[in-house]
Amino acid sequence: MYFLGHMAWAYVWAMLAWAVIPGVKRSGKLIVPAILLLGILPDADLLLGDLGVVHRTLTHSFFFWIVIFLPLFFFFRLKSVPYFVAVVQHFAFGDLLMGKVMIFWPFNTSQIGFNFAMPSTIDVTLEITGLLLALAIIMYSGDLKRLFSIDKRNSLMLIPLLSLATSALFFASHWSSTTALTTYVLSNNLLIALAIGHIILFTFIGISAIQGLRAWQIKKSTT
User: 13 and 85 in contact (C-beta within 8 Å)?
Assistant: First the structure.
């Protein structure tokens, strides 16, 4: 999936875990910036190629993230499960459907997945469905009011915002000009849908981040 789907479904699956696991809901709201970042974090291996890390191996393995989360499981117990779900859904749901991934690496190097094309009708349907579900849950759960409030904690949304922007710039860098990229995107309804979805997600995260920065500015002006 693109970052659009990975972020949207990370929130959807994490909120599902938060709602159904006994006692977790009472522990308080999830940290949404962390959920969004965890949803794309396995793709950090794209930056580790010079170190010999192959994409969809180390950071796309259940065992890698179980080891990473062991201290969190120990100290926070079930409270950490939604965050674990947010990161593993990246490869156990998104990449498993849209590609092939070594989810049991290094004990089993078999590539598992349905390997649907990107972009394709299935891919775009999943990505847009994830976005719509995420937006619906955000409004129903009350997270919309929280994330759009003037609150310093919302400045953390800058991290997933910059990650999303970096992904877009990386994709755009493969084109010789903005005109060529625009022509390519407008040539296909699936690409147009993906572009609109990314713009909606970017706008949502951007508004939340701006509200967080406003809170810092207001505090500074009153001291």
Answer: yes
**Nearest of 126, 212, 123 to residue 161 by alpha carbon:** 212
| Phi, psi of 112, rounded to the nearest 5 degrees | -115, 135
Closest CA to 69 of 51, 86, 56, 90: 86
Cα separation, 11 vs 30, whole angstroms: 9
What pLDDT does 132 receive? 98
Q: How buried is residue 13: exposed, middle or buried, by Cβ count under 10 Å (0-12/13-18/19+)?
A: buried
Mean per-residue pLDDT of the chain: 93
- 15 CB contacts (<8 Å, ≥6 apart)? 30, 82, 137, 141
For the entire predicted model, the pTM comes to 0.94
Phi, psi (degrees; rounded to nearest 5) at 28: 115, 175
The yes-or-no verdict on residue 223 having pLDDT over 70 is no
DSSP label at residue 93: I
Total domain count, the chain: 1
In whole angstroms, what is the distance from residue 220 CA to residue 223 CA? 5
The residue range of the domain holding 45 is 3-221
**Contact predicate 113/125, CB 8 Å:** no
The token pair that represents 24 in the structure block: 């977790």
Q: Is 125 helix (H, G, I), strand (E, B) or coil?
A: helix
Q: Can you say whether the dihedral through the CA atoms of 103, 138, 5, 157 is positive or negative?
A: negative
Alpha-carbon gap, residue 165 to 3, rounded angstroms: 10
Q: Are 21 and 143 in contact (CB under 8 A)?
A: no
- Cβ 101 vs Cβ 56: under 8 Å: yes
